[in-house]
Amino acid sequence: MLKILAMSLQFLTRFYVYRGDFDERAYGRAPMFFPLVGLFLGVAWTVLYLALTHLFPQPVIAAFLVLGMATLSGGLHLDGFMDTMDGIFSGRSREKMLEIMRDSRVGAFGVLGLVCLLLLKFALLLSLPREALLRLLPIVPAISRWGMVYAIARFPYARAQGLGLFQVQYTGSRELAAASFQVLLIALTGGWLGLSLLFASLVLVHGLARYFTSRLGGLTGDTYGAINEITEVFLLLAAYPLSKCLPLTLL
What we know:
The protein has helices at about 1-10, 25-30, 35-50, 60-70, 75-90, 95-100, 110-125, 130-135, 140-155, 165-170, 175-190, 190-215, 220-240. The longest helix is centred in the C-terminal third of the chain and has 26 residues, at about 190-215. The protein contains 13 helices and no strands. The chain is mostly helical and about 250 residues long. It is globular. It has one domain (about 1-240).
């Protein structure tokens, strides 16, 4: 289990904690700890927010949070998001879309999508009330990364090869159940707001995964990253109105 956790942490962050040989099965089961790693990232962002609170104005803090989110994850999901935007909006055949997504060069749709995503993320981090933001920062990345586990476990892989194929092969109902248990406990710390966001994310992730599958014949590592980024922004967006009417505690 420790090897699986180490691989999960290393895959989703810039922390290279696993130095052993590549273990296909451990890597394939790594998604089961994605919500826990998401919580780790969220706590790191919360610490960053608190450290900067008395030093800079809110717009600067929001900018540093966006930068911190990208830096700690190594830009992995942002890269997948851009590739997915380039492929999906190319209007080409299924095979051509997959080929475009594999291309290391970024196209106009990828750049435009990234700019819109980061601007929206910045605006939401700037606008959310302090109390809600402090409660949400640890929760949101855990839920969005659980969304990737759901997509991996419940939808087919579009390519005949690739590292993502190992995760589809080894991440099944048991791994999804473990990840779901983790994310439920994490969401409970946000009270009714946290539970509402978790339920909303399930609907969104299922819809996104079905859409990508209909266009590509399955999912890829890039679409997992896109699902994470879209879910993250959606949760912040939904939290803005919901935080005004739902309590941050269950009692």
